[in-house]
C-alpha cells in the first residue's frame, strides 16, 4: 500500500535540459538527457546533490509534454548551451515513494492525485489552452541503475507542489 504524505521542501538550485515530447515518445527522448546533464556538470567539476529528476512543466496529453531532466545542486550554476539553470521552488508537496518499474508511474501518479483530491488539496497548477502548467511536478529517481539493474525494484519519489 502506498504511503502518501505532505512534505515541506526548501528551494533547491538545479541544472537541467528542457525538451518537449509526446507521451508515446517521452522515455525515448528524455532518458538520454540525464547523462548529458551529468556530463555537463562533470566538465565543470560539479557534483549533483541528489538523484536525477524529471520535472513536468506542461502536460497536454493530446499534444506534447514539456519536461526538464536534471539534477539538484548544492549551489547555483549558470546554464549554457542546452543546459539551463534554475531553482526548484520551496513549499508544500504531496509525495509518495513508488517501488517498481518506471512504467508503473502512471498508476502511482493517479493514486497520488486521487489521494490529494480526497484530502481536499489543490496543486500549484494553471490551465492554458487546454494544457496543465505545473509550478513543480517531480519524479525523483532514487535508485541508481549501476547499483540496482532490476528496474522492477527501482524507487521513485513523486513530489507535486501544492497551491
How would you portray this structure in words?
With 163 residues, the chain is α+β, with helices and mostly antiparallel strands. The chain has a single domain, classed as Multidrug-efflux Transporter 1 Regulator Bmrr, Chain A, CATH 3.20.80. It has two helices and ten strands; from the N terminus they run ββαββββαββββ. Strands 1, 2, 3, 4, 5, 6, 7, 8, 9 and 10 form a ten-stranded antiparallel sheet that branches. Strand 7 and strand 8 form a beta hairpin. The mean pLDDT is 93.
Short description:
This protein has helices spanning 26-43, 105-118; strands at 4-9, 12-21, 53-59, 65-72, 83-88, 91-99, 125-128, 131-134, 137-141, 155-161. It is an alpha+beta fold.
Number of H- or I-type helical stretches: 2
Helix content: 10-25%
What is the beta-strand fraction? 35-45%
Q: CATH superfamily membership, which one?
A: Regulatory factor, effector binding domain
CATH architecture: Alpha-Beta Barrel
**H and E string:** EEHEEEEHEEEE
CATH uppermost class: Alpha Beta
Let me know the average pLDDT. Answer: 93
State the domain count. Answer: 1
Q: What is the number of E strands? A: 10
Derived structural class = alpha+beta
Largest sheet: number of strands, sense, barrel closure: 10 strands, antiparallel
- Stretches with pLDDT under 50, minimum 5 residues: none
- Radius of gyration, whole Å: 15 Å
Q: What's the end-to-end separation, in Å?
A: 26 Å
Here the CATH topology equals: Multidrug-efflux Transporter 1 Regulator Bmrr, Chain A
- Overall geometry comes to globular
